[in-house]
Amino acid sequence: MAEGSESRSGSVGAEVRAFGRGLSELELARENFDDPRHEWRRLFAEVLGTFFLVLVGAGGGVVDAVSDGAIGRGASVTAPGLMVLAIILFMGAISGAHLNPAVTLGFALRGAFPWRRVPGYIVAELLGSTLAVLLLWAMFGKVGSLGATEPGPGITDLQAMVMELILTVGLFSVILGTASKAQNLGPLSALGVGAYIVLAGLWSSPISGASMNPARSFGPDLVLGNFAHYWVYAVGPILGAAIAVGFAFVLRGRSDVGGAAAAQGALGPLRVGPDPDATERPAGS
After folding, report:
1. How far apart are CA 188 and CA 76, in angstroms?
2. What is the pLDDT of residues 264-279, one digit of tens each?
């Protein structure tokens, strides 16, 4: 009996020490999370990654116009998926490779990304998109509508918005699902995300362009000076990401360390849940 009591006592002591270490690590994370030495790298990664994504996404339409249709729709919708796959693999650990304001907002809503970092990420993504389209304009002129995403012939803005919403529900569900702690695929998650983007483009691009990304659509519209349809590509993806967050809560509960790692990258300590300096919320709220 004495030996059993000592064993249980030792086990409890080990658990208490582990809990204390966890609290210490969390406090250290709170102190170091906003280290500016890491933040500029994260923001630069978002600018660079979104630049390459939009260069390929919008560039497909531009080069297709310049080359008299040598690329075709299949290649135009496949290239962005492959580019996203490559970007996640080469810089996902730096910033999380959001490349998309809807993804950034979705991660924040999920509790895997701090709200105070959302504005910087969105500005970086919009800047990367704009720089890519400016380069295409400088190289080829305003041909192929600079790869702008618009509803297809005979498709209303409302139809296109609903399509973008549905597509983004699927996209962000794949992102959240492959990043959860119970199902974290690590670098292999890039395959799932890239494959989904290709699949979505192959069957739905004639309806809405399969943007699923307000930044992807922002650059061409800004350079062309035409935001007539932009609301479609802002409202649809953002609402779609929000719905996917609700589905993720039903399927897996609150965000975990795996999701936070995917959203924040690996340059500094992770922060899971509400911001440290945000108003406290009761459990379950």
Report:
1. 23
2. 665 655 555 555 444 4
